[in-house]
Amino acid sequence: MLTKDRAICIRAIDYSETSQIVTFFTKATGKIDAIAKGSKRPKSPFDGLIEVLSHGNIVFVEPASEKLATLTEFQQQPALINLRNNLSVLYTCLFAAELLNNLTHDHDPHPGLFDSFLEFLHNANQQHPTGNEQRDLLALLILFQLTLLNEIGLQPVLDRCVNCRKSGRVGLAPPHLNQSAPDVPDVYFSNSANGIICRDCEASFPDKIRLSRDVSACLFSFKQIPESSEKTLKEIENVLINHLTQLLGRKPKMAKHILDGV
Ligand SMILES: [Zn+2]
Questions:
Q1: So what's the pLDDT on residue 186?
Q2: What is the mean pLDDT of the segment spanning 127-143?
Q3: How far is the CA of 167 from the centre of ligand 1 (A)?
Q4: Distance 204 CA to ligand 1 centre (A)
Q5: Which end of the chain has fewer beta carbons closer than 10 Å to its terminal beta carbon, N or C?
Q6: Ligand 1 centre from 113 Cα, in Å?
Q7: For residue 214, how far is its CA from the centre of ligand 1 (angstroms)?
Q8: How many angstroms does the Cα of residue 229 sit away from the middle of ligand 1?
Q9: 109 pLDDT band (50/70/90 cuts)?
Q10: Rounded distance from Cα 187 to ligand 1 centre (Å)
Q11: pLDDT at position 171
């Protein structure tokens, strides 16, 4: 049966001299692996070699008994992207694609996540209004990672202590309240608990990381993230990379490029 879908390539490996095996994140079907026969030939049937982060409309055949689908059409849209001109943007987008590939299951559709990923790729490749591209890229990446965790049902608990469920006295509050309360208690994040831990509970969570006040304010209210300083965003991204490493059982390959040089 022929299936049509919108798709973004999130992984591509050489299969033979002329063919590739590609992983697409599709809007209606979710993640699929497909063989693209002839994709490396000069007259490729798929508008040229299929590269990671290319996107467009695909048609594929999914045999009942085999794992690999067969790609029959890929009408590539113009690249979103001047990725090759900008390594920071390229690495950030490849990191997001790696997370999507490793945290979603085959044939588990998330149309909202598809739209979020496309929007993330688009925004990452825009001119940055603040003139601080690295900061803006980090803010976009953080928001995408939080969306991804939410979509796959692994969203950390960020508005209260995940252990005792109390929010009022754990120091979590919008930043204007935090600023007027200099004695707000410390707040922590625990990977194993999947969320925020308060001062009263922290002793039971050896893996906890202490959060600065700005970071806990951002995690309490995501609206703060695009306005935050680069230092705060780096701290948040560090917490997220640690958390993702725990979830995946290994550090994502592209993670080393994210906080370096930012
Ligand atoms: Zn607690």
A1: 82
A2: 84
A3: 8
A4: 10
A5: N
A6: 31
A7: 19
A8: 28
A9: very high
A10: 9
A11: 54
Q: What mean pLDDT, rounded, does the chain reach?
A: 89
Mean pLDDT of 144-149: 98
Rg of the chain, C-alpha, whole Å? 21
Q: How far is the CA of 202 from the centre of ligand 1 (A)?
A: 7
**Which amino acid type is present at position 209?**
I
For the question of whether the overall pTM of this predicted structure is more than 0.85, the answer is yes
Separation of CA 18 and ligand 1 centre (Å): 57
Q: Where in the chain is the domain with CATH 2.40.50.140?
A: 2-76
CATH architecture of residue range(s) 2-76: Beta Barrel (2.40)
Which residues have CB atoms below 5 A from the ion given as ligand 1? Answer: 161, 163-164, 198, 200-201
